[in-house]
Specification:
The protein is an alpha+beta fold. It has one domain. The protein contains three helices and five strands, in the order αβββαββα. The protein has a five-stranded antiparallel β-sheet with strand order 1-2-3-5-4. The model has no long low-confidence stretch (mean pLDDT about 85).
Length: about 140
């Protein structure tokens, strides 16, 4: 069963609102396949996004229905530490293992600029952002 992300997201925004900057908001997304569940927490300050992505393999969780709760509680704690620590600690780009409630989780993340990433993807795909092929236009 997919968690009610809007309810969880609203709860996180309420809990952390005093530590969020004026234009920031928290956005949750969820992914699950047959082997793993991933919960993604984005601190969005358009156009910048700081992402925390936690993953657990379902075989490592005592009861599969607990996996979302475990991931949410873990990310809530990580966010709380990050906000309290002046946002200086950054997760690694690749998943790093963490022990939480006797379960091994993976955490990765970092700062992103989706607008610039989309432009870079277009350039790599062969699109020319310059009119008539002239980089000076």
């Amino acid at each position: 069963m997919k968690p009610d992300l809007l309810v969880l997201q609203a709860a996180l925004n309420t809990r952390h609102k005093t530590n969020l900057r004026g234009n920031e908001r928290l956005v949750l997304t969820h992914e699950q396949d047959g082997q793993a569940e991933t919960l993604i927490l984005d601190v969005v300050a358009d156009p910048e996004v700081f992402r925390f992505e936690a993953r657990v393999y379902l075989e490592d969780v005592p009861a599969a229905e607990e996996s979302t709760t475990i991931l949410l509680d873990f990310l809530d704690g990580v966010l709380e530490e990050w906000l309290a620590g002046d946002r200086e600690a950054y997760p690694t780009l690749d998943f790093s293992p963490y022990q939480f409630r006797n379960v091994t989780l993976g955490l990765r993340g970092g700062a992103q600029r989706p607008d610039l990433e989309a432009l870079a993807d277009a350039l790599l795909a062969g699109a020319n952002p310059h009119r008539n092929g002239d980089p000076h236009e």
